[in-house]
């Protein structure tokens, strides 16, 4: 039960707030003539609020991102660590090769000749610069 509540907390919050808003709408605004299908009875107005609140707050629900574990794809890819040799020697992903970012443009051919997909690793997002080297059209 805790898992269901934790996973759907935004929807549950929307249902609760929607129910309160629906009842308050009936109580303070409502349809006095009784001819309005949704707001003529407190149960209808409350249920309408529940549905709208649940739908509205479902937009805020965390969506699981489609991600892959690096260990799962490492065997089928060339992993290039673009950190400095000192950083690389302090610890690196098993099977990765070290090509410092400053050298990546000069050594791009040896990476481009690989038949495997290339994964660039870095510590602080430096791979974006490396990606630019590989995304430029070949001459």
Automatic annotation (TrEMBL):
Signal peptide: none
InterPro entries: DUF6132, GlpE_sulfurtransferase, Rhodanese-like_dom, Rhodanese-like_dom_sf
Pfam families registered for this protein in UniProt: DUF6132, Rhodanese
EC number: 2.8.1.1
Segments forming domain Rhodanese: 73-120
Gene3D superfamilies the UniProt entry points to: Rhodanese-like domain (3.40.250.10)
Protein name per its UniProtKB record: Putative Thiosulfate sulfurtransferase
Coiled coil: none
Organism: Capnocytophaga canimorsus
Keyword Transmembrane: yes
EC class (word): transferase
Key words of the record: Membrane, Transferase, Transmembrane, Transmembrane helix
Listed GO MF terms: thiosulfate-cyanide sulfurtransferase activity
Transmembrane segments: 12-30, 42-60
